[in-house]
Amino acid sequence: MNKAGTERAAVSTTAPDARTIAIVQALAAVVVWGASFASTKRLLVEMSPESILCARAALGTAFVSVLLAARGRLRLLPARDWPQIAGFALLGLVATQILQAYALERSSSANTAWLVALNPVVTALLAAWLIGEHLSGKLAGLAVAFGGALLVLSGGHSLAQALTLPSTRGDLLTLVSTVSWALYTIYGRTFVSRHDPAVVTAHVLGMAAILCAPFFVMRHGWAQLSALSPMGWVCLLYLGIACSGLAFMLYYGALEHLEASQVAAFIYVEPLIAQALSVIFLGEPLTASLLAGGAAILAGVWLVSHAEARRVSATEPPV
Question: Of 71, 219, 268, 297, which residue has the fewest beta carbons closer than 10 angstroms?
């Protein structure tokens, strides 16, 4: 039995209660992440993007480290791995979250969340180019998702008019952030498979906090923290502890009892949560073009994932 078959067999023998708990964990993680866009946009009123990222990474590091220590799993990875960890922190946290924070200053949290849903599509394209993964059967989904992204960017206007809209620069920054996250996913996949994912998360968060510390000092981050309003503290603690800490732990907990593809499917719920919260709490408009573009993005991403599942199923020998 090959590795994929072994994984399916292990998952199939998982107790129903454990599977139910895993589903709840995965759903809870994406709900937490879905609210991060509105929380970040609210916090940007009081803090700079660099200060938010540094404080969020530090809080996440502390939270994950405490949980690991309580389970007796906290350890330091070998020094030879630190350059890779620094690279992952730059791609997956520093670049991605800074770009998205600046995007939120120039666009709506709903637009940003919908465009972030393109991450699996961008990853598929870059993986085909950089490491030779197959694109067969995925082109239709890629085209649908790209058309949805253009519709979100244009807001229902022509593309020429869209380039003059105030939100367009922010939306383009979000698209660039999907590239940095895709590179993080591609190059980090092998590394994470050799280590405890939660331990890697603690190291990457800690490295991101270290890398952002000079910018935190330059932007007078301590002064921003001391001047935070009660709501600002709520948003910051939510981003650091819930989004960077708890949600990742829930996500990895779900991976213990569900296949990776099953857990990944829950990511598509994230923009739906972000859209609902943006409309309810931030008063952002719910336009037909945004809904249609978002639906196209989700449909395209689903088509890409479904094509990959069919390709793997067709090439695997019977178990």
Answer: 71
Instruction: From residue 304, give the alpha-carbon distance in Å to each of 133, 289, 301.
Output: 13, 22, 5
Q: Over the stretch 234-283, which tens digit does the pLDDT of each residue have? A: 999 999 999 988 887 787 667 666 655 455 556 666 766 776 777 777 67
Neighbour-count burial of 305, counting CB atoms closer than 10 A to its CB (0-12 exposed, 13-18 middle, 19+ buried)? buried
Check whether 192 has a pLDDT greater than 50.
yes
Instruction: Summarize the confidence of residues 5-18 as an average pLDDT.
Output: 51
Angle at 33 between CA 7 and CA 291, to 5 degrees: 100
Q: Write down the pTM of the prediction.
A: 0.72
Could you identify the residue written with the tokens 């200053």? 105
Structure confidence by residue, pLDDT tens digits, 102-120 = 888 888 776 777 777 777 7
DSSP the chain: --HHHHHHHHHHTS-HHHHHHHHHHHHHHHHHHHTHHHHHHHHTTTS-HHHHHHHHHHHHHHHHHHHHHHTT---PPPGGGHHHHHHHHIIIIIIHHHHHHHHHHHS-HHHHHHHHTTHHHHHHHHHHHHS----TTTHHHHHHHHHHHHHHHHTTS-HHHHTTSTTHHHHHHHHHHHHHHHHHHHHHHHHHHTS-HHHHHHHHHHHHHHHHHHHHHHTTHHHHHHT--HHHHHHHHIIIIIIIIIHHHHHHHHHTTS-HHHHHHGGGGHHHHHHHHHHHHS-----HHHHHHHHHHHHHHHHHHHHHHHHHHHHSPP-
- Say if residues 2 and 316 touch (Cβ distance below 8 Å): yes
Would you state the pLDDT for residue 60? 94
Is 80 exceeded by the pLDDT of residue 81? Answer: yes
In terms of Cβ atoms closer than 10 Å to its own Cβ (0-12, 13-18, 19+), residue 22 is buried
Q: Mean pLDDT for the chain?
A: 78
Angle formed by the axes of helices 16-34 and 270-281, nearest 10°: 50
